[in-house]
Amino acid sequence: MNRKLVSTALAAAMVCSMGAASATTVSAEEQKTVGILMPTQSSERWINDGANMKKQLEEKGYKVELQYAEDDTAMQVSQLENYVGKGVDCLVIAAIDSGVLVNAEAQAKEAGIPIIAYDRLLMDTDAVSYYATFDNKGVGTVIGNYIKDTKDLDAAREAGESYTIEFFMGSPDDNNALFLYNGIMEVLQEYLDDGTLVCKSGRTSFEDTCILRWSQETAQANCENILTANYADEDLDIACSAFDGFAYGIKAALLGAGYTEENWPLITGQDAEVMATKNIIDGTQTMSIYKDTRLLAEKAVTMVDAVLKGEEPEINDTEQYDNGKMVVPTYMCTPVAVDQSNYKEILIDGGYYTEDQLK
After folding, report:
1. What radius of gyration, in Å, describes the C-alpha atoms of the chain?
2. 201 pLDDT exceeds 70?
3. What SS3 state is found at 223?
4. CB–CB of 106/125 below 8 Å?
5. Region 49-53: what's the mean pLDDT?
6. What does UniProt give as the signal peptide span (predicted)?
7. 93 has which bridge partners?
8. What DSSP character marks residue 234?
9. Which among 78, 189, 193, 332 is most buried, taking Cβ atoms within 10 Å?
10. Residue 20, Cα to own-chain centre: how many angstroms?
11. DSSP designation for 345
12. What domains appear along the chain, each with residue ranges and CATH number?
């Protein structure tokens, strides 16, 4: 698994880097302004995304205004309207709830301001020009296959054995969350159907397992309630979590319920945050999905640069991301699973973290 995961990571880096535009300095007379809207600073990854894009755009000579809305939808609407009023030249938006941005996005289109959707698809609008993201269904597929392979579900099926599993899925107002869920179920549904995986709470649908605003606190409360109601006399074997923040809440709930190293379940996550990686090292989280935000930021930056120069950016998907008004031309980067076997090669040798950060 180690060698395969490392190869996948290297391939992902090559794929995301191919076709990247070389740095082009914009003269002071031609300097244009890019407005970036990020959802929150409560998650490490969004801080990194914003900082990476700002740095790369400024290196190309653009003026950059970066704002975070702290998961306040009204604030993000106001920020977007302010950018339109200022007459920025391009917008990059990672939405909290894209449904509330539709009217402001229409104002941007009317003003001739192109919009790049960043890692969260902007729904129900024809104002979006391009979308830069990771393969969100692929994230779910990687998580599902990790569970399948690590627990060897095919062998368990043959032996008539089973594992208990509970699901903690992403926010219902984030279109990525449903893509991720579908990817997981594409792998795991057959094992739920034949009893190799047993969900004692019965909560397996997206509607029953989604957690609004990706809340760690809600994930912890949900896990505490599930453990109390369903696992008093039997251990939970797998916590299928869509986000590192959920994994932190699940860990707290398990510790509160008396779980130890001897009966600790497999716990998945997404984003490979510093804390998650430390938990992977100490064994309280099993894996996470590594999404190199440096590469995703680079793709968004090349999209902005191309749009503002009247050029066509590189895309690799014109079918998957239908937002209800249009199929949005997209560039997808590849997600990679990290665990104890490969985090050093992927995260440290790859320059994403230093050894000191993970101590």
Report:
1. 21
2. yes
3. helix
4. yes
5. 95
6. 1-23
7. 37, 117
8. S
9. 332
10. 22
11. I
12. 2-135+292-334 (3.40.50.2300), 136-290 (3.40.50.2300)
- Write the DSSP assignment of 90-154 as a string of letters: EEEE--S-GGGGHHHHHHHHHTT--EEEESSPPPS-S-EEEEEEE-HHHHHHHHHHHHHHHTTHH
Residues 6 or more apart whose CB falls under 8 angstroms from that of 127 comprise 105, 106, 108, 109, 115
Q: Which residues of 115-129 are buried (b: 16+ CB within 10 A; e: fewer)?
A: bbbbbbbbbebebbb
Stretch 76-88: mean pLDDT: 98
250 compared with 19, residue with greater pLDDT:
250
**Nearest residue to 223 (alpha-carbon basis) of 178, 279, 167:** 167
Whether 102 and 75 have beta carbons less than 8 Å apart is answered as no
2-6, long-range: CB < 8 A, 24+ apart: 2/341, 2/342, 2/345, 5/336, 5/337, 5/338, 5/339, 5/341, 5/342, 5/346, 6/342, 6/345, 6/346
Residue type for position 196: T
Cβ atoms of 219 and 241 closer than 8 Å = yes
Tell me the average pLDDT of the chain: 92
CB 135 within 8 A of CB 335: yes
274: amino acid identity, one letter = V
Residue 271 and residue 248 in contact, taking contact as beta carbons nearer than 8 Å? no
User: Exposed (0-12), middle (13-18) or buried (19+): which is 36, by Cβ within 10 Å?
Assistant: buried
- Bridge partners of 52? none
Residue 202 burial (10 A CB sphere; 0-12, 13-18, 19+): exposed
Give the burial class of 353: count Cβ atoms within 10 A of its Cβ; 0-12 exposed, 13-18 middle, 19 or more buried: middle
Residue closest to 267 by CA, chosen among 335, 220, 203, 211: 220
